[in-house]
Amino acid sequence: MKINPIHSFDLSLDEMRAIQHSLRQQIRLTPYLGQPRLVAGVDLAYFPDNQQAVAVIAIMDYASKQLVETVHCQDTVSQEYIPGFLAFRELPLFLKAWEQVQSEPDLVFFDGNGMLHPERVGLATHASFFIDKPTIGIAKKHFMGEYREPGPERGSMERIWDQGEIIGAVLRTQDGVKPIYVSVGNHVDLPLSLRLALHFVGKESRIPEIIRRADMLTRQIRKQMLDSLESQK
DNA sequence: GCGACAG
DNA sequence: ATCTTGTCGC
Question: Residue ranges of the domains in chain A?
């Protein structure tokens, strides 16, 4: 996979804001994918020291939902978490893992927001400028924007607004269960993002399977590393 | 000043 | 995100 090195990291708040501001104008909501064949899900897990982390990319077949490839990368994460700047913390490690991907995903889901962001450049959106793929953000908790509570049935959704703009949607993925927050990353529109997100929600979880698999692998790998470290004592 | 605040 | 066991409920 090819990488587009656009920015370095370890920047000041003002520099990070400036980057977000410039990227914002390059977002395209025109879907440039037909029927996706392979879809990737990304997640990170942190070690107790909060300095090391594992990034996992899980790739599955869209139609069969079978896992076709997984890659992971473990390294130090230097940038602290600052609300609104998650991308600067998590993208470097993600990109290192991305270099190892052999298959060709048509779309990438991120654990976090896309345009559901003060500058419309959340993790999923920011990532799209490095990997040049359609991206979608899936957050488990509310970050910003105003919305009405969606109905209690699976599939109910409500738009999320900010400054007169629709920046995402709250989606009820299971009857009577807490909703998730879906937003466009790049190169997709919101209705398609919602449709694709719902496609990956089975009966077992409120989180789309593509994200959940990455999340599970992330914890599994971290446990393996901690266990083998412990057994060496 | 106070509360909110993706992962 | 992470630290953590059992436990209330469908």
Answer: 13-231
CA–C1' span, A179 to C9, in Å? Answer: 20
Residue partners of A27: CB distance under 8 A and separation at least 6: A115, A120, A121, A125, A184, A186
Sheet holding A180-186, edge to edge: A67-76, A52-61, A38-46, A107-111, A135-139, A180-186, A165-171, A157-162
**A137 sits within 7 Å of strand B by its CB:** yes
Please state whether the predicted TM-score (pTM) of the whole model is above 0.85. Answer: yes
State yes or no: pLDDT of A79 exceeds 80.
Answer: yes
Given a cut of 90, whether residue A232 has pLDDT beyond it is no
3-state helix, strand, coil in chain A (%, to 5): 30, 25, 45
User: In Å, what is the separation between the CA of A180 and the C1' of C7?
Assistant: 25
**Residue A128 CB partners (closer than 8 Å, separation 6+):** A108, A134, A135, A185, A186, A187
Please state which architecture CATH assigns to domain A13-231.
2-Layer Sandwich (3.30)
